[in-house]
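Mods, move this if it's the wrong board.
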Amino acid sequence: MSDIVVKKTVWQGNQGRGLADAAMDRLRRGEVGSVPVAIGLVIIAAVFYRLNAHFLSAENLTNLALQMAATGTIALGIVLVLLLGEIDLSAGSVSGLTAVVMTLLYVRHGWNVVVAVIAAVAVGAAIGLLHGLMRTMLSMPSFVVTLAGLIGWQGLMLYLLGKEGTVNLPFDRGIATISDTWLAPALGWLLVTLLVGGHLTASLITRQQRVHAKLDVPAPIWIVLRSGGLAVLLGATVAVLNTDRGVPLTLVIFGGLVLALDLILRRTVFGRRMYAVGGNAEAARRAGINVTGIRIAAFVGCSALATLGGILAASRLVAVNQSSGGSDILLNAIAAAVIGGTSLFGGRGRAYAALLGILVIQSITNGMLLLNVDSSVRFMVTGAVLAISVAIDSVARRGAEGAR
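Not the wrong board. Structure tokens:
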């Protein structure tokens, strides 16, 4: 009996050393994950709070949640194409065009709001399909394909809007109510309970599966601590938001999309194939993966998510106009994906990159607006943060190549 206990203890010790060695190996290769982003968010919050205590108030944090949902959703789509080492410069224009399509069908043609949203998403997916086919069948660079899309789809949007240039949504029903809906306090806490419980259950199941496969696993205490940290983070967020208007529905929608995409990328065959194609397309092809199909699916997903982002933006504005999908929306979406940790070279990144990245960008924007800082300074600061993020990604890639 004692021999069994000793063997079990040695096995667990080896597991612990294996995990520690793996962590050190990742650090040596420059794969620091989301740690720099998390540290950056803490620094940003501390600096702006010191300069203006209103930055961390419940009212301002609620406004921050509303501001980041639309662009963050578009950034989710950008993550998909970046994972393959591609780019989509048309995401902003697609978000504006499809929002206009949805609004015209809903307001001017009297379609049911749900049917109008589904039709708009279908239009966005069709645009993504066209981009994907041009990229794969014609071997056109994605930069050129989507740059043409950026110009062309914006022109079509302006044509559909006509001379009026603006179409208002009914402010008391339908799409407009999405940005003005808040969860009841009890419902917010229920959501936290479900998310933390689901995270803990999934982690324990994954650990058990790895144990059966004789793979390295973390000690149960670390799983509990991770879920506990998530509980503290979500609980604090809900507690603060409940002191104002509550948890906004737009934040729930955005968070749900992040969670769904993360599960698809990490837990499905399609997701694993995405990483394989992004890491080495030729090796993936030789392994029997349909590289063309994966690339087309990425562009379809990017445009569909851009559509959802455009609809959230229209809900917040309660209208669509000639500036829908324009301004710096596209640049912020791409910057959010990269700042959050998605590699420009493909093969590395997670859905949570969009959430972390848009938090950084919107926090900087929000904080500087509170301080009445000129837009020129905000652009320079955001550009510097983006440059640092790309530099970290480049160092990580060089480390990974050196470790081979």
